[in-house]
From TrEMBL:
The chain holds residues 262 to 517 of 517 of the full protein. It comes from the Bacteria. It is found in: Cell membrane. It comes from Lacticaseibacillus brantae DSM 23927. The lineage of its organism: Bacteria, Bacillati, Bacillota, Bacilli, Lactobacillales. Residues 41-256 form the Histidine kinase domain. This is histidine kinase.
Length: 256
């Protein structure tokens, strides 16, 4: 679709000169539609935990609090839903930051960055008795936006841990290959069906809503990864086998 704007250059004079601006609006409309869909999705996703918190708090106030068992059970739900709300807000902010132009480009040690991220997952790694292997040259440095790369690694590692089986493995590998930086996160988890593999990068998309929700997932982790990778002119791919495991690979161009 093409829109035309006519601007009179000499308003109020006999002389009529006009500048005709033609531009393709299909692209703009699509962006507008995507933004509207996103706002709709965000509102829906935020409303769900809020509705639940309000409902359970109201029931408690109306007398259910007098039963100690119900009190504990409902407070737990309110607590879980509040945490979920916090996670959603954190992820939505991360997504909006990933679209902003702010950059933190510096040279950093890749192994240090991976180890820092792993540290924050220590509890879950231990609880699930996972074996984590990091194969990164201790001298490997990358010049890139460290905040963005760190968020990419964090989201991929979070998933590799959450969707893993007890006693499973997580392998993080990074190297320079053919003039590019390549990082892969491999797990021995539940895997992702071929049909789902393209959709998982969509905002709010979750393969199994019920299960993902129990894990505190928001469906935004991979959308954030995709957006960050795109902003760094890189690419992200997934290869997975159901019941065997999944590998995400991120490739970034080297900046001078
Ligand atoms: P979530 O917050 O639900 O984890 P993500 O955007 O990070 O959202 O992932 C989208 C969906 O992709 C998840 O709900 C999950 O079903 C699937 N997924 C992501 N990473 C993995 C993985 N490593 N193994 C299996 N499934 C995964």
């Amino acid at each position: 679709a093409v829109d035309a704007s006519v601007v009179s250059l000499n308003p109020g004079t006999d002389q009529f000169q006009a500048l005709v601006i033609l531009y393709d609006v299909t692209y703009l409309r699509r962006i507008e539609q995507m933004q509207m869909d996103f706002v709709g999705n965000v509102s829906h996703e935020l409303k769900t935990p809020v509705t639940s918190i309000t409902g359970f708090a109201e029931t408690l106030l109306n007398g259910a609090k007098d039963n100690p068992e119900t009190l504990t059970q409902f407070l737990q739900i309110i607590y879980d839903e509040s945490r979920r709300l916090t996670q959603l807000i954190t992820d939505i902010l991360a997504l909006s930051r990933s679209e902003s132009g702010t950059t933190h480009v510096r040279s950093f040690n890749v192994l240090e960055l991976v180890n820092q991220t792993l540290g924050s997952l220590d509890q879950t790694v231990q609880a699930k008795k996972l074996q984590v292997t990091v194969t990164v040259d201790p001298n490997l440095t990358l010049k890139s936006d460290s905040v963005k790369v760190s968020q990419i690694v964090r989201n991929l590692l979070n998933n590799a841990v959450f969707y893993n089986r007890d006693g499973g493995q997580v392998t993080v590998h990074a190297e320079m290959l053919a003039g590019q930086f390549r990082l892969s996160v491999q797990d021995t988890g539940i895997g992702i069906e071929t049909d789902e593999q393209q959709r998982i990068f969509e905002r709010f998309y979750r393969v199994d809503k019920a299960r993902s929700r129990n894990n505190g997932g928001t469906g935004l982790g991979l959308a954030i990864v995709a957006e960050l990778v795109r902003s760094l002119d890189g690419s992200v791919s997934v290869s997975s086998q159901l019941g065997v495991g999944t590998t995400f690979t991120v490739t970034l161009p080297l900046s001078d």
